[in-house]
Amino acid sequence: MKRTIIPFGPQHPVLPEPLVLDLILEDERVVDAVPTIGYIHRGLEMMVERVEYTEMGFVAERICGICSFMHGMGYCVSLEAIMNVEVPERARWLRIIWAEISRVQSHLLWLGLGADAFGFENLFMHCWRMREEILDIFEKTTGGRIIHSVNRIGGVKRDVSDAELAAIVVKLEELGKAFEKTANVFGKDPSIRHRLSGVGVLSADDARAVDAVGPMARASGVVMDTRLSGTYGYDQVDFEPVTETAGDCLARVVVRMREVQQSIGLVRQAVEKMPKGEGMPLENKPRGNPVGETYTRLEQPRGEVLYYVKANGTKNLERFRARTPTFANIPAMIKLVRGCDLADVPNIILTIDPCISCTER
Amino acid sequence: MDREAFLARVGEYHKEGRRLALINVTTLVPAAAPAHGAKPEAAATEASVGETAAPDQFEITWVFENDKDATLEKIREQVGPADIIPSISEFFGAAFLYENEIHELFGLNVEGINLDLQGQLYKTATKVPFSHAAVKARLEALAAKTAAAAEAKATTEAKA
Amino acid sequence: MSFFSKSPWILHYDASSCNGCDIEVLACLTPLYDVERFGVVNTGNPKHADILLITGSVNERNIDIIENLYRQMPDPKVVVAVGACACSGGIFARAYNIQGGIDKVLPVDVYVPGCAARPESIIDGVIKGIGALEMKRKKSA
Amino acid sequence: MSSLIVFLVAFPLVIGALLLGVHSGKLRNVIVVLAGLIVAGASIVTAATFGNGNALFFGLPNGLTLGQGLLVVEVLMAAFVLFVSIQNRRVLAPILVLGQLAISFYLELAGKMPEIDAGRLFWFDRLSMVMVLIIGIIGTLICIHSLGYMRDYHRSSPMIKGRRTAFFCLLFVFLGSMFGLVVSNYLPLMLVFWEITTLCSFLLIGYTRTEETIGYAFDALNMNMLGGLAFSGAILLLINGNQTLDLAKLTSGPASAALLPALALLCLAGLTKAAQMPFSRWLLGAMYAPSPTSALLHSSTMVKAGVFLLLRLSPAIAGSDLGTMVAFIGMLTFLFVSLVGLTEQNTKKVLAYSTIGSLGLIVGCAGLGSPELIWVGVMIIIFHALAKGLLFLVVGTIENRFYTKDMENFDTLLSRLPLVSALALVGIAGMFIAPFGVVVAKWTAIRAFLEIPGWQGAALLVIMAFGSSFTIFYWGKLLIKVLSMKSVTEYERSIQKRISSFEWIAEIALAAGVLAVTFFLAAISEQVVGPFALATFKGTSQSFLHVEPVMLATMIVAVLFLPVLALWASRHENYNMSDFYAAGRPVTNGNVVGMALGGTRAVTLRNYYLEGVVNGQLVFRAGTTICAALLIAALAAGMVGR
Amino acid sequence: MNPIVYAVLFVLLAPVFGGLLAGIDRIASARMQSRVGPPLLQPFYDLGKLLQKDARQVNPLVEPLLLGHVGFMAATGAMLVGGVDLIFVAFVFALAALFLVLAAGTVNSPYSFTGAERELVVLLAAEPFFILMLAAICKVTDASSYQGVLSSAVMVAPKLPGVLLAFTFVATIKLRKSPFDISTSHHAHQELVSGLTSDMSGRLLAYVEMAHWYESAILASFVILFFNWSVPLGLLAFAVIYAAEVLVDNSTSRAKWQLVLRSTWAVTLLLAGGNVLALFLLK
Question: What's the complex ipTM?
Answer without folding.
Answer: 0.87
